[in-house]
Amino acid sequence: MFRLDFEKYLRSTIVLAIDTVTSVFASALVLIFGYILRGYHAVGPVHFVTTWIIGAAVASVIAFYFTRVYKLVIRFSTIREFSRLCVAVICKELLLAASIAIFDGDRPFRLLAALLILDFLITIGALLLTRVLMLSVYWMANRNRHMEHHDGLQNVLVYGSGAKSASIVTRLRTSPHYRVTGFIVPAADQTDSLLMGKPVYYFHDENDVKDIIDKAHAGGVLFAYHLDAHEEQNRLVDYCQKLGVKMFVAPSIDEIKDGKAITPSIRKIKIEDLLGRSEIKINMKEIRDNFQGKTVLVTGAAGSIGSELCRQLAHLGVKHLVMFDNAETPLHNVRLEFEDNYPSLYFTPVIGDVRQVERLDYVFRKYRPDVVFHAAAYKHVPLMEENPCEAVMVNVRGSRNVADKCVEYEAEKMVMISTDKAVNPTNIMGCTKRLAEIYVQSLGLAIEQGVRKGKTTFVTTRFGNVLGSNGSVIPRFTEQIEKGGPLTVTDPEIRRFFMTIPEACRLVMEAATIATGTQIFVFDMGTPIKIDDLARRMIQLAGFEPDRDIAIEYTGLRPGEKLYEEVLATKENTIPTNHDRIFVAKVRKYEYDAAAATSDELHMLAERVEIPEMVKLMKRTVPEFISKHSVFEIYDQPANAETAADVADTKDAE
Fold this sequence. Notes:
Layout: H1 6-9, H2 12-38, H3 40-43, H4 46-67, H5 79-103, H6 109-146, E1 154-159, H7 163-171, E2 178-186, E3 193-195, E4 198-203, H8 206-216, E5 220-223, H9 226-231, H10 236-243, E6 246-249, E7 256-257, E8 260-261, E9 267-268, H11 271-275, H12 284-291, E10 295-299, H13 304-313, E11 320-325, H14 328-341, E12 347-351, H15 357-367, E13 371-374, H16 381-386, H17 388-408, E14 413-417, H18 428-448, E15 457-462, E16 465-467, H19 473-482, E17 487-489, E18 495-496, E19 498-500, H20 501-514, E20 519-523, E21 529-530, H21 531-541, E22 552-554, E23 574-576, E24 582-585, H22 592-607, H23 611-621, H24 638-646
Helix pairs in contact: 2-4, 2-6, 4-5, 5-6, 12-20, 13-20, 15-17, 17-18, 17-22, 18-22, 18-23, 22-23
């Protein structure tokens, strides 16, 4: 059977041709109307008619081509596209007027002006009518095509009644998978109404939602934006889970280009959608100005944070992006991703280890980075409790190596990625990150005070857990759910702060931009989340019931693990900045010579694997380091513990 492939037969060049023919036809109508209304005096001799028609054709082609109205996706047209069409027709009239003035300047001005105004109105009307006809043909063609899949469509209700929600109806009209049967909106005592020709249902409680689902014959609720799902997680999301109603999220309008979704279109709700927070507002102009045209080095570029930093830097106009990591396969995967997604970006992946001074020296010497993001680190708490020497070698010595090379090769700025576990650390990993902070901060202060030569500004950023990072709790729970459980939670009361990876990286770049000197920035991490609640919600989102379909087991706190993480941003331990989610930490300052000597000694002890002496030195240097659930608790002397309580970071501010 014959099918009209609207996408194929209405390419942009054909649309340009149709617009031109329509425009010329409209101009011909103007002459006809002029003759009917004013007779021969309005139209004039054949020479004028010829000039008018040819001028209209040439002017139309030029105006439509350079305003690119033929590139507009007709089925997604808005008022903005209409205004662009008006601009194109105005350009046509100006060009037509110029051609008449050049080739037939005898026409009276008032008469010519009247003809041009009439031509503008008729051309606009004709172009709009043509587009309506094309759109009608498109919907009819696609309606017939998708009728074959009618029985397989999933009926959904769109959450909300705003512009984003309304746009979903247009975007899903030809979907082979989903059919919008209405809108569902939280409100009490409202009369049902219509939006985009679809009924709007208002709900107040779970019973209302059940009645609406039955009335609309819907099997799912579609959120136009993931933050809507986050705001409704304790109401509509809960109701849908209890009723067994599926939940979906659509790509945002910003993810639509030329009528097609850049990211995968409709998808099921994920736990990250419910844990996210309101959009972070950052000054993109200042950030772009800070990084544009510069060579940027990212260590740990294949990791969760490092790779996302690279993605965001790719949009900032950097001159050269150097990706440094010791993990071959992950770095190879990042390279393939960037070759596909950022073909115009000049980037270089480099295999190397921050522990190898010679390799670092080669990278700095060859590429001369202006800005360095140091994200390379060992981060897993239990593993570092079992391998403390490696934690020192990478997190402490590796950070020093990068910082020293920044000074040697005169990098403008080094931004070190730290962690909330560096605050009053209870484990080896947290303490090594605090020791790295101490060295970097003392080096920066020594440069500012003229004790050491250099021009590098050192910035440190602290934040908590990031959603979906490699080896984190959410991927672990997802894997356990796929296997049928059980989900392992260390303690029913354990709580953690979470932040999305893009959110954390945006704040890192903002902090790097607003830094005025050697500073440690901490981020507002929001409200802590109970891991037990997180596990149960993930089980429900997967369509199962906790404790019945999938069990939860409590395994006890792991070595070095806290029950509650530190609150990073409080009035007592931070200074506010001009960004409401970024604060400057008040921390104890260390002399550079002492910090360097400690770093040297720790490095020597780590190389010799003299663990007891190394851990003792760590605790002397960071007296607030009190081990928890760890074999290293034996090195916490009572006197030392009292000292730690008195001189914790939050008490030692200057």
